[in-house]
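Reviewers of the previous submission asked for a worked example of the structure-prediction workflow described in the proposal, so we include one complete record here. The input consisted solely of the amino acid sequence. No template or homolog information was supplied to the procedure at any stage.
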Amino acid sequence: MSDTATLSAAGVSVRFGGVTAVSGVSIDAHAGEVLGLIGPNGAGKTTLFDVLSGIRTPSSGHIYLEGSDITRRSPTWRSRHGIRRTFQRQQMFGWLTVEDNVLVALEWRGGGGGLLADLAGLPSRRRHERERRARTDEVLELCGLLELRNQPAGKLPIGRARMVEMARAIVDEPKVLLLDEPTSGLEESETRSLGESMQRVCKERGCAVILVEHDVGFVMSHCDRIVVLNLGSVIAEGTPDAIRENAVVQEAYLG
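From that input alone, the workflow returned the following structure tokens.
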């Protein structure tokens, strides 16, 4: 794990009128680390994710990517600079194939040469297309989706659909991967496969992973550190063993 934080939240608060959903939260996520974010319903986990991904601007506090303040940066800017996210609800293009759902995450980079290159089929464009498809094949294999590449994504069972979302999030090498309830609706074998894919992306690619998850066993098995939220505030932070034995966490959540 790197000593340098890839993504940081510093003193982040989010208020909705008179309700404080997140209160002065500070967290650091490091390259090569899986950071778990747990807590009871209403603890502020998804709201914090919205702030980290740029969907919501905090009422106060700052977000830093590799030391640079990105608090006012848009979700699109953050995605293109390496912050990728999945959602609790599936967000797929159901009418596209599995392969095309993954390829679409690379489209923003373009092919170089503009319309002329498209029409002329220039060598640079053909090389770029081969590279895109080779990378997509690599990720489809990692996520166990190669045999489904030509299937319409909208017809997949929930477990496979979540793996498509995972593949789309990692195909364009992320710096930070935000996973929001990724095991929801998955069978045991699918949960195991997702955990293996997450670990490979984190450890082999040096990606920082932040995981919101209600499956405590999954969190304890896969996270290097865990932050516990309750009523919008951090009540504990530490290793899985330390969190498991923490009396405050036991009372607020694990008990």
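The first strand starts at residue 5 and ends at 16. We consider this example representative of the routine output the project will generate in years two and three.
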